[in-house]
Specification:
alpha+beta, 2 domains, 6-stranded antiparallel beta sheet, 26% strand, elongated, FAS1-like_DH_region
Length: 184
């Protein structure tokens, strides 16, 4: 890749910062309010048997005042079901996007490998039973090109802000992937 092409690629990457990852930018509304049944399933599946999640009497007398959701469950409330059919054609994206994939130009430039590297949460408060959660996701940062064991690539980080029905921030999640050239 020429220096000019690299500069143009960098400009396009920088232009994504602060923009919605779905190309549309509308909040995603959870299909269901936070509810005790899903909290119970999560708690049992992960072996996190906190009485604040499972015991109404304990929760009522706790600082929460009612059953709450494990905070890292935030993502699950608004997560659409994955659609495996066509995932390769969507560049590994597990959902059908309403707009064009804003990172398609990166794949077109040969950065077709994708691997998740890490996720971080910042929790403002525990989601409560009955909360109606929405999420908005924007590109947060994109690294300079890095040489990695997987191949040369860019670390792409987006941040999802989760809000309740009153628009109050419940938490944030940063998610990072490496978009790399395979076969380097």
């Amino acid at each position: 890749m020429t220096d000019t092409a690299k500069d143009e690629l960098r400009e396009r990457l920088d232009a994504l910062i602060g923009k919605p990852t779905d190309g549309v930018g509308k909040p995603v509304r959870a299909p269901d309010p936070v509810n005790a049944a899903m909290i119970r399933h999560w708690a049992y599946a992960l072996g996190d048997m906190s009485p604040a999640y499972l015991d109404p009497e304990f929760a009522k007398n706790s600082r929460y005042g009612d059953i709450v959701s494990p905070p890292v469950m935030l993502q699950t409330w608004t997560m659409p079901p994955p659609k495996l059919e066509g995932i390769h054609e969507r560049g590994g994206v597990p959902i059908e996007m309403k707009g064009e994939n804003p990172l398609q130009f990166l794949a077109d430039a040969g950065y077709t490998g994708i691997i998740a590297t890490n996720s971080e949460f910042e929790i403002e408060r525990y989601p409560r039973v009955g909360d109606e959660i929405t999420s908005e996701t924007v590109f947060d940062s994109i690294s300079d090109e890095k040489k990695t064991a997987m191949g040369d690539g860019y670390f792409v980080t987006w941040v999802t802000t989760y809000r309740d029905q009153n628009g109050e921030v419940v938490g944030r999640q940063w998610f990072r992937t490496l978009r790399f050239k395979t076969g380097n």
